[in-house]
Amino acid sequence: MSPASPVSRTSRTDTTTGQAATGALVGLAIGDALGYPTEFHDVPSILARYGPWREMELPRPALVTDDTQMTLALGRALRTVMDRGVLEPSAMEPAVRREFIDWYHSPENNRAPGNTCLTACRLLDSDRRWQQASQLHSKGCGANMRVAPLGLVPGLSTEQRAGAAQLQSALTHGHPTALAASDLTAHAVFLLAQGAEPTGLAGQLRSYAIENRTRYHERWLGDLWTYGRDAGDADPAHFMARGWDDCLAALDRLVDALRAPSPETDPCLATGEGWIAEEALATGLLCFLLFPDEPLLALRRAACTKGDSDSIACLAGAFAGARIGPGAWPREWAERIEHHGELLALGALWDA
User: Fold this and answer.
1) Taking the domains of the chain in order of start, what are their residue ranges?
2) What's this model's pTM, rounded to 2 decimal places?
3) Where are the alpha helices (DSSP H) in the chain?
4) Predicted confidence band at 24 (pLDDT cuts at 50, 70, 90)?
5) Cys staple from 307: which of 88, 186, 274, 280, with CB 3.0 to 4.6 Å?
6) Backbone angle region of 274, left / alpha / beta, with phi > 0 → left and psi within -120 to 50 → alpha
7) How far apart are CA 284 and CA 352, in angstroms?
8) At the top level of CATH, which class does the domain 12-351 belong to?
C-alpha cells in the first residue's frame, strides 16, 4: 500500500465523526486538483499520460480551479452573514455578490473559469439588480460545483438551505435547472453529513425533487422567473418544474447505471459529461456511489472521465468527505492542497 493510500475500505463507524464539513471541503478541493489536469481530455489520452486510473496521484503542485475558488468565496460570504445574524436573502445577496466580484478581479482567476460565471460577475460589478446580471439561459455546472457549503453550515432550516442554494446559483446561473441542481446538490451533501446511507441516497433525492417540483422560493429569488421564463411558463411553478424535471431525468439515469454498475466504464457514458448542472450532479454521485467506502477510488474514477473532470471529481469529493469525514483523505494529500488552511478553518467553524 502506497503512502498516499488510506485503508482500502472505510466505513462510517471507523472514521472521524462530527467533521463532515472538513471532510467535504478538503475532499472537494482534492477532487478538483486531481481532475484539473485531465479536464478536456478523453479517457484513452488520460490513461496514456497518467497510467491506470486506480493509481492516479495528486499533481505537484496540487492546484485547484475556479470550482474550489468559488466554493471558498461562497463559504466566506456565508460566514460573514452568519457572524452578524440569521441567514436571510437581504444579507446574503450583497455578501455573495461582493465575494464573486472579488473572485472575478483576482489575478488567480486564471484556471479555465466558465464563461457564464465571468459574464455574470462582470455584470454584477455594476449598480444593476442581480436578476439582470444573471445568465438566464445557462444551466452550466458552475452553480452547483460551489454549493457544498450550504449542505454543511449548521443550524439552517430546510427553507433556508434550499432558498440560499438557489440564490447563490441565480447570481450567475439563472436557468431553472441550475437552481434545482444546486438545491439538490446541497441537499445531498446535507443528507450524507447527517448520516444517510449511500444505498438509499438516490431515492431520497428523487423524493425531494418530486416534493419541490413546483416550489418557487420567491423570498430568495424575487422576480427572477419573469426574466427567465419561456413561452410555456405561465407562472413560477411552471418555471421551476422545467428545472426539476431535468434533474429527475438525470437521477433516473443514475438509478439505471447503479442497477448494473460498471466501475471500469467511463461514468460519463451513463449519466453525462458534467458540463451542465444536472449531469455534473448525477455523474459526481455515480462516481461516489460506485465506491462509497473507497473515497480515493471515487475521486480517481471521476478524474478519469471524458467530461468536466474537475467538477465531477469536486462533487464526488464533497459527497465522500461529507459522509466519511477528513479521515477519508491521505494526510499528505490534504496538507499540500492549495488553500489548505482556509479549507480547514471553514470546516472547523462549521464542524464546531
Assistant:
1) 12-351
2) 0.94
3) 20-35, 43-50, 66-84, 89-105, 115-124, 130-133, 149-152, 158-170, 176-193, 201-211, 218-221, 224-228, 236-259, 268-271, 277-290, 295-303, 309-324, 331-336, 340-351
4) very high
5) 274
6) left
7) 27
8) mainly alpha
